Structures are given as structure tokens and as C-alpha cells.
Amino acid sequence: MYFEDFIPGYTITTPGRTITEADIVAFAGLSGDFHPIHTDEIYARQTPFGKRVAHGALILSISLGLATRLNQLGDTLLALGALDKVRFSNPVFAGDTISVKKRVFETMEMDAIRGVVIFHTHVHSHDQKMVLSYTDKLLVRRKAIPV
Questions:
Q1: 69-73, 116-120, 125-129, range with the lowest pLDDT
Q2: What DSSP state is assigned to residue 9?
Q3: What is the pLDDT of residue 145?
Q4: How far is 79 from 61, CA to CA, in rounded Å?
Q5: What total number of domains does the chain contain?
């Protein structure tokens, strides 16, 4: 889709993806975040969550990846410009399945070849709890203007 194809109110939902133990362990290794809430079952049992929690940044990263699976942008996506108003509202655990709902909030023309599409994005778990929300701004290629 090109910039002009995104109309405010347009909404799309991704397929689900189950968060695994391997995801959490791999993300701890990649990020260096070995906080015991993520990596120590005995410690995590003593927390209000009662078990280990997936890293918030892992869920954010997976949500961005799920959005690419929609094949809406392909080579028309030029850049991720911003993530704003990031809110982690509920924990995600190994075994939870998440999906992403994106709604076009606003579009802004930049020049003859680019525009900005602003999405309100909500990530829900399989039991319909919102676990994450944010606003993302994508720089998107415009349709070629005939000369």
C-alpha cells in the first residue's frame, strides 16, 4: 500500500503469535536483561504476577514484526519514524498468544515522494486483554505522480 491508500479509520488485525519460553530466554540473551522477573521462576512466584513475565520490549518487538506479516507495506515502507505513548497495561506470559490491531489515525503529506501514516496500535492477548498500546509513525512512499 502507498501513502494515499491509508485512510483514517482503516483498521487491520494481525494473525496471532504465541510467546514461548524460547522467545523470553533468547530476548534476555540478546538484550542483556536477565532481571529475575523474566528469568527466575522462584523469584517470580513471589511477585504479584505469580510467575515469570515476558519482557515488555520483547512484546513491543514482536508486535512490530507481526505488523510486517500483514504485507501492507513491502517496499513502500521507508522508515519507522516514531513510537509514542507506549503503555504496557497487562503482563504477557509464556504460552500467551498475542495479536495486533492497527488503526490509521492520521496521514500527513511530506513531499512528492513521502508521507507519514500515524497508527494507533493495540496488542491483545488471546483472552482479549490489552497488553500494550502505542502510536507509531511510519514514513511511507507515495504513488508516482505522472509527469
A1: 69-73
A2: T
A3: 67
A4: 15
A5: 1
Q: Give the separation between CA 82 and CA 106, rounded to whole angstroms.
A: 14
CA distance 134 to 53: 20
Domain of 107: which CATH number? 3.10.129.10
Domain extent for 52: 3-141
| 146 is a domain residue | no
Burial of 7 (0-12, 13-18, 19+ CB in 10 A): exposed
In 10 A of CB 54, how many CB atoms? 24
Q: Which amino acid appears at position 19 of this protein?
A: I
**Would you mind telling me the total number of residues written for the chain in this entry?**
147
Instruction: Write out pLDDT tens, residues 16-27.
Output: 999 999 999 999
The answer as to whether 41 is a domain residue is yes
Is residue 34 domain-resident?
yes
pLDDT tens profile 65-104: 999 888 788 889 999 999 999 999 999 999 999 999 999 9
